[in-house]
Structures are given as structure tokens and as C-alpha cells.
TrEMBL record:
NCBIfam families: PRK07231.1 (NF005559). It comes from Streptomyces mimosae. InterPro entries: NAD(P)-bd_dom_sf, Sc_DH/Rdtase_CS, SDR_fam. It holds the Pfam family adh_short_C2. It is an enzyme of class 1 (oxidoreductase). This is Glucose 1-dehydrogenase.
Length: 268
């Protein structure tokens, strides 16, 4: 995006990404859908990618009903072949790529590290960390051509300990380190790379976990870890991602931005 940002300043609401081409992985539900809708509302043409066609179609429908432009392609970020096909589809359908949002992720198992099976460890790192690497690498030529940017959706648990999630937190910690390495590597080509670090957000991915916490009477303890005293929403993450993808962040790269209700600031 830095290639579009020579003048700096804030864009007019509804036009902050006007004319930009955006790829969002994991775009069928939760954070991915919210990001796709927000970016499209700001004038971007959005391609959402994911493993399941039905949720992707729902995102496209939602964007189009709101007057935006969106299309979808099925792609599994753990498959190098499918990621290569995604890159080809994106450049062909959009005519180029300005922004890549690496949102695809999953919690494969909820166990302490000593009980985490080898295959679960590998699968977790594959989708949450290696998937972002694959997509970024595949789309780099297109991003460099337009001096674009990458936004990784990581997690505050990259920096704050979380029980029974060793593989997930390790993957997200690696993603934050990858963000900084990519930012340094790609700055000479004008490609910015940043990450958003959400905490507890009400999404499909987290719904079962939050319901379990409520049933066990442990939900208040979660809120107590958040100085602002409330859960985040997908829109909170989408707005932070929009800032990092916009010209307003033209001089921002290598940043891991907590969007966590103050959780990381208040940790002891």
C-alpha cells in the first residue's frame, strides 16, 4: 500500500481502500468475514478464500448486498498446490493484489503441552503459521508490483500465556516473529507487513470455549483479565486491520498491534 501513500493523510470514510484489490484467507466466517465486509465497505474489491464453499458464498452475498464487490475461491492454506492456485486466481480475477490478510487459522486441540499429540502440533503450526508463510510467499510478486501490504491475524496469546493451547500459542508467536522478519525483508520492495493480536473475541471459533467458560462459572475470570471489562467483536479486529491496510499506516511496518481490551497492558 505504500505505493499509494505518497501524500499521507486520512482517506474519506467509505473510500479508504478505493480501487484496492484484497485477498482474505479464512474469509468465510468470524474475523475473516468481518474484515472482508469492512474492507469492501471502504471501496476494496475483495477475494475471500477458505476450505468450505458455503461460508465463502455467504460472505460474498453479504458484501454484495451492502453494495460491495466480492468473489470467492476455495483454497486450503496447508496445501502448497492450492495456495499457488489461489495466487493465480487472485491476480487473474483482481488484476493484481494490494493487500493480503492472512486470517486462516484453527485450534486443533485443547491440551497441555505434555498431552499434545505430535500430529496435532504439526497440524496447528501448518495452518496458523506455515499457511501464512505460503500465502505471503505466493502473493509476494503481486504485492511487490503494487507496493502493497500484508496483515497477519495473530493473537495476544503469542505474548501472553494460555493454558491448554501450547501449539496454538507457539504458532501465533511464530507468526509475530515472521511478521517482523518479513517487514525487514520486504521493506526495500515497498511491501509493509504488520500483525493484529486479538484477545477474546466472540467468533464461531471461540463460541464453544466461551460457552464452556460460562457453564463452569469461569467467564468472570476471563473478563477480569481485560481491563476494559468486555469481550471484543469481529468488527474491532476488522477496524484495526483496516488501519494497517490503509494509507494512514504508510509508515508502519513490523508492528504487532494488540486489539485485546487492555489484556496485554494489564498482565502481571
Amino acid at each position: 500500500m505504500s505505493g499509494h501513500a505518497a501524500g499521507g493523510g486520512q482517506g474519506t470514510p467509505g473510500t479508504r481502500l478505493a480501487g484496492r484489490a484484497v485477498v482474505v484467507t479464512g474469509g468465510g466466517t468470524g474475523l475473516g468475514r468481518a474484515i472482508a465486509e469492512r474492507f469492501a465497505a471502504e471501496g476494496a474489491r475483495v477475494l475471500v478464500a477458505g476450505r468450505r464453499p458455503e461460508p465463502l458464498a455467504e460472505t460474498v452475498t453479504a458484501v454484495r448486498r451492502a453494495g460491495g464487490t466480492a468473489l470467492a475461491t476455495v483454497a486450503d492454506v496447508t496445501s502448497p498446490t492450492q495456495v499457488a492456485a489461489l495466487a493465480d486466481a487472485a491476480t487473474e480475477a483482481l488484476g493484481g493484489v494490494d493487500v493480503l490478510v492472512n486470517n486462516a487459522g484453527a485450534v486443533v486441540s485443547r491440551t497441555p503441552v505434555d498431552a499434545c499429540a505430535e500430529e496435532d502440533w504439526a497440524a496447528t503450526l501448518d495452518v496458523n503459521l506455515s499457511g501464512a508463510y505460503r500465502c505471503s510467499r505466493a502473493l509476494f510478486p503481486a504485492l511487490a508490483e503494487r507496493r502493497g501490504c500484508v496483515v497477519h491475524i495473530a493473537s495476544v496469546f503469542a505474548e501472553v500465556g494460555m493454558a491448554n493451547a501450547a501449539a496454538y500459542t507457539a504458532a501465533k508467536g511464530g507468526l509475530v516473529s515472521l511478521t517482523r522478519a518479513m517487514a525487514v525483508d520486504w521493506a526495500p520492495r515497498g511491501v509493509r507487513v504488520n500483525a493484529v493480536l486479538p484477545a477474546y473475541v466472540e467468533t464461531d471459533l471461540n463460541r464453544a470455549m466461551l460457552a464452556e467458560l460460562r457453564e463452569r462459572g469461569a467467564f468472570d475470570a476471563v473478563l477480569a483479565r481485560l481491563p476494559l471489562g468486555l469481550l471484543g467483536t469481529p468488527d474491532d479486529v476488522a477496524h484495526a486491520s483496516l488501519f494497517l491496510a490503509s494509507d494512514e499506516a504508510r509508515w508502519v511496518t513490523g508492528v504487532a498491534l494488540p486489539v485485546d481490551g487492555g489484556m496485554s497492558a494489564g498482565r502481571t
